[in-house]
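During the second half of the funding period, the structural biology subgroup turned its attention to how the target accommodates small molecules. The most pressing case was magnesium ion, which had performed well in the primary screen but for which no bound structure existed. We therefore specified the complex as follows and requested a full 3D prediction, including the ligand pose.
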Amino acid sequence: MERFSKHSAADYVSLYFKFVKMIMMSRMMYKWDTFLLSFSVLVRESVTVITLVLMLNKFSVIDGWNMSSLLFLYSFVFLSYSLSILMFTGLRDFEEAVHQGVFDGYLTKPLSPLFHVISKKSDVMATFGHGGLGIILFVYSFNKIGLDWSLKSILVVLWMLAGGILVQGAILLFCAAITFWTTKSNEIQNILFYQTRGFIAYPISIYPKVIKVILTMVIPLAFVNYYPASYMIKHETVWLLSPVVGLVAFALSYAVWRRGMLHYKSTGH
Amino acid sequence: MSVISVENISKHFLIPQKKKGFLGSVSSLFSNQYETKVAVKDISFQINQGEMVGFIGPNGAGKSTTIKMLTGILVPTAGDVKVNGKVPYKNREENAANIGVVFGQRTQLWWDLPLLESFELLRYIYKIPETKYRTNLRFLTELLEVNSFITTPVRQLSLGQRMRADLLASLLHDPAILFLDEPTIGLDAIAKERIRELLVAINKEKNVTVLLTTHDMSDIEKTCNRMIIIDKGSKIYDGGINEIRANYGESRTLVMDFGHTPVIPQINAVTSIECEGLRYRIQFQKSKISASQLISLLSKDNELVDLTVQEPEIESIIKEIYNEPYKVSQVREKEAVR
Ligand SMILES: Nc1ncnc2c1ncn2[C@@H]1O[C@H](COP(=O)(O)OP(=O)(O)O)[C@@H](O)[C@H]1O
Ligand SMILES: [Mg+2]
């Protein structure tokens, strides 16, 4: 029998793009569906933004943040979620993959199961919907604030987005890993990720200290938008470390995932 | 040479006592209130290269759990498993590269894409060299007659076609062993028959060791020469199919065609009677009454047109082994009234 040598990092990169191609081809089978769903996600998310705008007076300022900087803050929520979900839909839907036995199938393949989970799925409708809204808000508020469209600021934005993607990926990975113990994780994910995300629509400086600490140290969603925007608007340089926080969070979640794998019990049907 | 070696494996599932809601799930993470479910109990067997073995047992017997331990999905609670000389869960990827796995209820194919796309991706997942891939694909598409729908999206395939496609997908990398969990589940009779024939052909042509699970005895009768019966997590039989007939086949069926509605006396050795018009299927225990005694009893007052004596169905033998009492069918009660 031939010995199988595990895939190298280069193999994984090329495999990743093969998976991406398969996902895109699948989506192309439903062009209209994809378009309409993306559009309805955009509308749905816009409602929350419009509500915020209507609630606040045009000239009001929250904790030193005026309307355009609030929208700038908000644009990072959408942009980074858009990219996170492009990459990590498999983690978001992990409970389902376990229940339907799909994850069992991954375990019978000569691939890293986490790689398989991540590369197999991508919710491009959410990506387009959140991303579209994010771009609109970002361009509008960027100009309004009077930031400079230089190469440097674009690079800083991308750098900060990378941090936001890693932070959100880390939280989703942590919740997915919980599935190994509890077989259910959607509720935990809903609370730790989706509900908590609600807080970062506003500058976290308005919250009590506990919440600030939680959003910085425990569920570090403040690195998705508050710290990046603080850096860009207020030039607080230290927050350039955002992707480092993301990497550390991801590494910690990965450790939990590895532990969890030993507890995997499949499903009873 | 044994390619699968299983020694005294057990699998216990600890089922946490469920609590509702978020706090419930968090607290169940830390609580130690568990219920232990023994899914597999101290099972051992060896399977040799090229063998075709059927795993049979009722729902919940532990068949899937056993397959999952052999394929590296689950870690056994106790005991040793070796597949191709390796411990599956410790060398998961290496084991995965040398086995093929098909779960009957689900597919590993990309639902919305033409079948061929899934095969192409598998080529990279298993690192199959180009020439080997081409040769295997040509050989298998012909054998499994997949050519006519290889460019069809998987979601448009019939269940039988999809199963053949899944079989093909599991064989592209020349696995030494093929594991099939309920490969005929949900298929109609013709498609079932086709899959059985194909499994035999694959086993012969490629000398692949095949281990399949089923709760349909005909799957095993038509494909395997060895079967392992498990019930409630324990192995209760391991051996040939013909031996089992000799050792356990206590019942026989007498099929009689009568000229008119017969009068049938109460006979203790008879365990069930079914009728279809004037054709009667009378099941009896051969140790209590001989076929000729029974025939003479029944033909005394009735006009007999034709008769045959049937060997027991393996199905009923298995019931016998499970210790399930024969059910006297509905038909008999109606007969008694008439
Ligand atoms: N992941 C699991 N968690 C808890 N119980 C399980 C799990 N998997 C299987 N079981 C239980 O173990 C027993 C054997 O299941 P299984 O191996 O699926 O049986 P079969 O495949 O023979 O129908 C069943 O009672 C089932 O409910
Ligand atoms: Mg099963």
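Two results from this model are relevant to the next phase. The pocket of magnesium ion (ligand 2) is lined by residues B 63-64, 181-182 (CB under 6 Å). Chain A touches chain B at residues 1, 3-7, 11, 14-15, 18-19, 22, 25-26, 29-30, 100-102, 104-105, 107-111, 178, 181-182, 184, 187-188, 191, 262, 264-266, 268-269 (CB under 8 Å).
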